Amino acid sequence: MNRRIIENLLIELNPEFNQLTDFIMENVEELKSKVSPTNELFSEKQTMLITYADQFQNKTNTDLQNLNSFLNTDLKGLCSHVHILPFYPWTSDDGFSAVNYHEVCSDYGTWQDVEDIKQDKMF
User: Fold this and answer.
1) CA distances from 42 to 3, 79, 114 (A)
2) Which residues pair with 90 in a beta bridge?
């Protein structure tokens, strides 16, 4: 999909989205650079865990730390991707009515916890 089509679609949704176009295109190009015929981004050979951050709780770690531990122990070698459903501060709708996309809900953990999941990628 070319840049012009993306820009037009975003602006049609919300005129303020035009400021996101560069960011989106940079990420699209980065993903393209990582995908080759031998290194598919997604295929039938891969498994994705889709979960809420608060599904992994205990009294000693944050929910996101617990998720990372689960990925690196119980799912090690079994899961190629993880999609964490909204983990931003929210008002209702189980996180889908986020009030700030720049913060992690303090009940779940911190951005460092998210980075740790991304960095470990042992699953």
Assistant:
1) 22, 12, 21
2) 98
